[in-house]
Amino acid sequence: MNENKIELIEDAASLSYAFASLEHIVLGKIYYTWENVMSCVGMWKNLCELQVPWNNMTSLTIPPDSLKIQSLDLEGNPIEDWDEINKLGCLER
C-alpha cells in the first residue's frame, strides 16, 4: 500500500471480514497520522506486523486493546520524544 493514500472510513470494523487473513501490512509514505492508522486497526483482527514508515508521524497515542501485533516499524517518522514511544508499552508480545 506504499504511497497510496486510501480514504479513511468511519466504521473500519465493518470491513474486517475482507481482511480476515491479513497478518502483515506496509503503509509507507501515505502520510497518515498515528491516529489515522489506529482508526483502521478494527479491520485487521489478525495483524501481526505493522509497518508505517515515512509518514511524518510526530506523536503517538496509546493503541487500542484490539491491536495485538508482534512487530511495529516506525522508521523515518520524526518522533522526537521518548514519551511518545512509551505510549506503546501496553502492546502485548
Taking the alpha carbons of the first and last residues, their distance comes to 25 Å
Mean of residue pLDDT values: 92
Count of discrete domains:
1
Rough outline: globular
Tell me the β content.
5-15%
Question: Which sheet architecture does the biggest sheet show?
Answer: 3 strands, parallel
Low-confidence stretches: none
- The percent of residues in helical segments reads 10-25%
Question: Numbering strands along the chain, what is their spatial order in the largest sheet?
Answer: 1-2-3
The SSE string, one letter per element, is EHEEH
Q: Helical element count?
A: 2
Counted beta strands: 3
Query: Structural class from helices and strands?
Result: little secondary structure
Instruction: Determine Rg (CA atoms, Å).
Output: 13 Å
Describe this structure in words.
The chain has helices at 34-40, 82-86, and strands spanning 24-26, 49-51, 71-73. By secondary structure, the protein is low in regular secondary structure. It has one domain. Strands 1-2-3 form a three-stranded parallel beta sheet, with no helix packed on it. Strand 1, helix 1 and strand 2 (49-51) form a beta-alpha-beta unit. The longest helix is centred in the middle third of the chain and has 7 residues, at 34-40. It is globular and about 35 Å long.
